[in-house]
Amino acid sequence: MTLFSLRARARSFKFALAGGRVLLTTQHNAWIHALATVAVVSGAIILRVSRVEWALLILAIGLVWAMEALNTAIELLADEISTEQRPRIGKAKDVAAFAVFAAALAAVLVGFLVFIPHLYPCIKIYVTQSQP
């Protein structure tokens, strides 16, 4: 038995990408996360954020995607167990949804901390020029 197999690693990546496809094709919130990801990455490129700022943005984006994936996995498993209303399954789904909400809120705060200092000079110039 081989401890490390490139073929097995390739298969595990194939399964992971299949999960990503399920996430993107079945979850409306994943579409919102995808749009937000594109907007944040585009903004970071345009504003030329620092490497540390990039790291913070990448961590925030990754956290939101990971939580959305886990939430979806929990929902799929819960629905496989029972589609009828069951209080503990409902609570588990609610807690998983809160994990996504908490990650998204943290990501928004990171975005503000990163982008506001870059945008402040632009806003200041606009406000100054629009005054009579």
Label this structure with key terms:
132 residues; Helix Hairpins
Task: Describe the protein.
The chain is an all-alpha fold and 132 residues long. It has one domain (30-130): Helix Hairpins, CATH 1.10.287.3610. The protein has four helices and no strands. Helix 2 runs parallel beside helix 4 (87-130). The protein is extended. The model has no long low-confidence stretch (mean pLDDT 91).
Name the CATH architecture.
Orthogonal Bundle
- Look at the helices and sheets and give the structural class: mainly alpha
Instruction: Give Rg in angstroms.
Output: 20 Å
Per DSSP, the total helix count is 4
- Terminal CA distance reads 79 Å
Short description:
With 132 residues, this protein is mostly helical.
What are the SSEs and their pairings?
Blueprint: H1 6-26, H2 28-47, H3 51-81, H4 87-130
